[in-house]
Amino acid sequence: MTRLPQHIAIIMDGNGRWATERGWDRTLGHKAGIDTVKKITSECARLGIKYLTLYTFSTENWNRPAYEIEALMNLVLNFIEMELFTDNNVRFRMVGDFKRLPESVQKKIQYMEDLTEKNDGLTMVVAMSYSSRWELTRAARKIARDVKEGRLSVDDINEETINSHLVTEFMPDPELLIRTGGELRISNYLLWQIAYSELYFCDTYWPDFDEESLHQAIASYQSRQRRFGKTEAQVEEMKNEE
What we know:
The chain is an alpha/beta fold. The chain is built from nine helices and six strands.
């Protein structure tokens, strides 16, 4: 409990396949996935995790069948009405291309962000209509505009400049990235932020990912030595000095 990651990011994969393998419509898999979101959010809050970022809907997902997109948006409307946030002292935030979302979803998101603004436990971040390439392109445009208008010098641009222009500037980088569903790729998710994150892949579909699955991912994280470019000996020496 003294070595918990403060920020866990999750790619919630496998909803559609979970439903298809049962002979059901894919949208039922997304509905089951919402139940898993509730369980994992509650457990992260109980453990004392500070940030949980969930990849809910990518910019590429807009290319999916219209009926599936509509079903996902309706699920979001129901999801952000949950008492989960107030019962567990969870703050709700959304990152992504807000303007592409239906107006009804935009209003609900703004409502939940305002309602939970003073909650100081877990911050649950929903990445919706989000992708890293979109985010980095947006940041580059903002930096270029600042330089053009004289608010920023080219020579002063550094990593912190980029960080401060990202939609995720309010939160620390994830220490642990989990992907469910058996796929071994990042799928355009938090590419800048996970430069030194520990990656954990599992075959479990998201609807079947439970509290014990989360504990296993955290245990895997705790078994690793995070070196950040240093040697193992250097890391051990720093630990001894502490």
